[in-house]
Amino acid sequence: xxxxxxxxxxxxxxxxxxxxxxxxxxxxxxxxxxxxxxxxxxxxxxxxxxxxxxxxxxxxxxxxxxxxxxxxxxxxxxxxxxxxxxxxxxxxxxxxxxxxxxxxxxxxxxxxxxxxxxxxxxxxxxxxxxxxxxxxxxxxxxxxxxxxxxxxxxxxxxxxxxxxxxxxxxxxxxxxxxxxxxxxxxxxxxxxxxxxxxxxxxxxxxxxxxxxxxxxxxxxxxxxxxxxxxxxxxxxxxxxxxxxxxxxxxxxxxxxxxxxxxxxxxxxxxxxxxxxxxxxxxxxxxxxxxxxxxxxxxxxxxxxxxxxxxxxxxxxxxxxxxxxxxxxxxxxxxxxxxxxxxxxxxxxxxxxxxxxxxxxxxxxxxxxxxxxxxxxxxxxxxxxxxxxxxxxxxxxxxxxxxxxxxxxxxx
Length: 411
Fold this sequence. Notes:
By secondary structure, this protein is an alpha+beta fold. The protein is 58% helix and 16% strand. It contains 10 helices and 11 strands. The chain has helices spanning 12-64, 81-88, 124-174, 185-188, 196-241, 247-274, 286-297, 315-332, 357-362, 378-390; strands at residues 72-74, 93-99, 102-110, 116-122, 282-285, 301-307, 310-313, 337-342, 345-349, 393-398, 404-409. The chain starts with 11 loop residues before the first helix and ends with a strand.
């Protein structure tokens, strides 16, 4: 089972700070232990050598019958038992122990019979030296960790700031702003070292330029095709009107009308793609506008007014959006179809199989349909484009109990 990390543990800067802190603490602990052990061994060794040297002198004096010096005693009661046993057994040894509340280095060796000759050396200064060293190690480690964290945080923040800037540009491109670029200065100066963030920024800028070029080519192609089709379609429509009445003539006229509608849709899409559409705003009551659109569609569509609202909008474009949504609901869905007005929000719903998954996730795409549906995918594309011109938000979803739901939110 994988443990869930807290939300704050996600950013790269936090992870880097934690990693730097752990590594600094581990390194400081390792160096501190090494220094502590080395200095302690050296201090203890010097004190042991001094105690053994004084024990050697005391043993010589004891055997010669001379008086014992200061700090030298025979069988002192304070001598640690383990060291006493070692001396009685005929061996020499040393041990650090407390004596009258002070650390003392004891050295003991055998005397005549079963007695022990002991020397005590004050070990307080050495103890204070080791304690001072430990405090110095702790303080220096804390300062080193703090300084390393500051330097590391500065370096990591510079990298994460550039990554966040690249992510913002990527989101702008995803939202349709194909002019957005990272423009990392490192990618423009070949003499500067190129790091991974600069490589990602350069790749994103290159992808955006390529995508923009391809989309502009597609838009120009769509506009050129639509314009080129208008002239022959006008002649074809005139010729179809001259045909004698009959079933073949009706079929020809029907196909010509469908082709003209497709051409007009392509022209409208090309105008929307150009970004030069201008609004003609006026105050419009939404309920009356929705009822007018439904009447004009000639379909059996219910209009439900929960709360009417007057919005400042372009009536022609708004009627185009709602008309396309209603037509799509009847063409690709099933009844009953309803248009609900709830303040500045208009919802068009049918009870068919719902929108395809790609449309709900990514929005309508021209000339793409799924599930055997007939059409070119232009109606919803035009509705979305006109909604963007209006400054409105058009979203597509599927109802839980079945059916497609298009929601238009006006300002």
